[in-house]
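Listing 4. Sequential folding, example run.
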Amino acid sequence: MKKKDTKQCCTITPLFPREAFVGLVSVKRKDETVFIYPFPKIYTDIKDFSEEIDQIEEEFSHPFMAVDEVGFIIPIAFEKKVPLKTAYWNSPSMNYSSDQRINLFYHVIRQYELFHMLVTPWRLSKKVQELSAAIPLYRSSEKERIEQFMMHSNYPVDEKGKFAALYSCGKAMGVKWKTGEFVNPHFSIVDISTH
């Protein structure tokens, strides 16, 4: 985590939804998936996810590339809270890049049963509580990996949060983000895992 002023650390208990989802969009060139972008926030409403895609569509649209009309959601279900510690904000030393994050989400799409999702406080205040799907973790090594990630990663976490949470992951589903209609995702797992 980024080095923070520890005076406000661990003062707000986030409200973790029982069920939510991680939203992803596919950026394509012609009919080929170039990459899948996992949004940082978790969502409880398709409408909120669609509105965010509308806002970033222009950013990913170029003469030869565009955001696909079908996005993806990975359902997640709350399992347990993970206490946060002031020490987590003392010495960030590991860069958690967008490419690393994207690659990890490919693995969740392929084998969701093997993963938990670590959900962290992203923006906390009296009026706003935004939570982030920070990192997918293999269930078999989650305890050590949580500590490593939280102690050393530069991933943005609102230091006011008292807890993060672990969520189980479900099978990815396709959604036409402009209409909210669920469809079979039209990507090949083989196609996306090679990018």
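-- end of first protein; second protein begins --
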Amino acid sequence: MGRLPATEQIGWLIGYLVEQGRLDDLMSLTQRLLSQSQNPALLNNAIYLTAIGGDGKTISLEMIATAEQLAKKFPQYTQMRSTLALLYCLSERYEEALAAYRESDRIGNGWHDFSPAARATLALVLAGNGSIDPFANMSTQIDWSGMTLTERRFFQMKLDPYLHSQEEKSGNPPPLQGRKNRGALMPAAACN
């Protein structure tokens, strides 16, 4: 195989492979990107989409190492830290996942600026750390319409066990079902 085309020309391909469920092709492309690409945004997106496209079963140590490097090199970009937190969480490294978010807060990236996927990742991280009350609050703050179908399916599948656990304890319906206004912003202080 020759070199990959310019990274800007294949960004669409990553999303297409995820949507089509072509995980082998996605993994192959991601591995090639990890070895050849110098575009940090494309690398981050490839790692993120590979992780969610494979329902969290496609994570490699190389993906985690690259995500760590990106988060360290570009700490001001929440999406880099969110991808790293997601990889840690899916690898059951919950404390490290939470530390990645705390670093975002420390450098001045407030929780209110998070994308819907970053909020869903944070909800997953909070639940994985046993922070059920902040999780319940965060899970109602996710704007599901701001995600792709693949993202919605992935995060709802991952968050569903925690939501049902909350439902059983409170007797209330889970926050992800039957809610129309999921886009409200949460103050940064609520996550501390």
